[in-house]
Structures are given as structure tokens and as C-alpha cells.
Design brief:
By secondary structure, the protein is of the alpha/beta class. It is about 45% helix and about 10% strand.
Length: about 180
């Protein structure tokens, strides 16, 4: 089986993911990463903009959960204002178990779930390995350590592959082919 490291969609910010975008892609559930996706690593609780984003997703009937490789205390503290269910800390992304477990709890087929995160080698790889729609967000982090910088450099070929695929699709839609 091929390892799929190219996301289905790349967006600049979590707010670019709207209920209509999800509904148009037949998405009924979202598993979202916490650190550098919903908030910067050092933000202890969600800002009002994230609270409103979560409300808009949930109000549209889409199920939402946080899956994070961070500690339970971090996930619980952040979720206190959000009230989301099916959250998982120490998720061991990209391994399949967490995605399968949360999908079962959501009661949704894998192809009706989007995985949202800022890392190709955890979020995108994990979601793609179980047949979920993957959305990569450009990291909220503005401070990168050397390990993160190296990881980002390793991700660039896959981001470029996504951009080539998008350009090809745009060309086809312009020519009507």
C-alpha cells in the first residue's frame, strides 16, 4: 500500500474551513489537531474566534473532536470552553487506531470525516491511511525550533505536489476538459 502524504486541501487558517466547505465535500465529522492548528502551542485556552468557529461547525450538524499527541491536561484545559466530545490526547498520530476509534464514536464512515492539522507526517498521513479527507493548515506557530524547521523542509515536496495537482485541476476547469 502506498504511503499518501499529500493532503486533499491546504488552507491558510482554521477559519478557511467553513460549514459549507465541509458540507460540499460530504463531511459530517471533523477530527482537528490542537497545537499549531486550533491554537499556538503556548495558548492555554481558545480565543473567542476559535469558540465561534467551533460553534459554527457544530451548529451546522457536523461532529467535531480534538485529537492531539499532547497531554490529557492540555486537551482538557483547552476544551473546557468548547465542550467537545470524543477528544483524544496522546493520540499516537499517525497510527490508525485513534482515527478508527473516533470515527466509530462519531458513527460516521471514514470518507465522511475530515482530519485537520498542521503536519503532513502526523495529521495528513494518519487521515489518509484510513481513507479520510485531509486538510492541512499552515502552522499557527511563528517560532520554530530546529526540529520543526527540519520537518517543514521535509514536508515541502508534498506541498509542492499538492500545488501541482491544484494547478492541473484549475487548468482542466478553464479548458473544460
Amino acid at each position: 500500500m502506498a504511503i499518501k502524504l499529500v493532503p486533499d486541501l491546504i488552507v491558510a487558517d482554521i477559519h478557511d474551513i467553513t460549514p459549507s466547505l465541509l458540507i460540499d465535500n460530504n463531511i459530517g465529522g471533523v477530527m482537528v489537531d490542537l497545537d499549531n492548528t486550533l491554537a499556538c502551542y503556548n495558548e492555554r485556552e481558545p480565543g473567542e474566534d476559535i469558540v465561534e468557529w467551533v460553534k459554527s461547525i457544530c451548529d451546522s450538524g457536523i461532529k467535531l473532536s480534538i485529537i492531539s499527541n499532547n497531554k490529557q491536561e492540555r486537551v482538557d484545559r483547552f476544551n473546557a470552553k468548547l465542550g467537545l466530545q470524543f477528544n483524544v490526547a496522546r493520540a499516537n498520530k499517525p497510527f490508525k487506531r485513534v482515527y478508527v476509534e473516533v470515527a466509530r464514536k462519531m458513527g460516521l464512515a471514514h470518507d465522511r470525516i475530515a482530519v485537520v492539522g498542521d503536519q503532513i507526517f502526523t495529521d495528513v498521513l494518519g487521515g489518509n491511511n484510513v481513507g479520510m479527507y485531509t486538510i492541512m493548515i499552515i502552522s499557527k506557530s511563528r517560532t520554530w525550533n530546529s526540529l520543526l524547521a527540519m520537518r517543514r523542509a521535509l514536508e515541502m515536496p508534498f506541498i509542492k505536489q499538492y500545488e501541482r495537482r491544484l494547478n492541473k485541476q484549475n487548468q482542466k476547469s478553464k479548458t473544460g476538459v
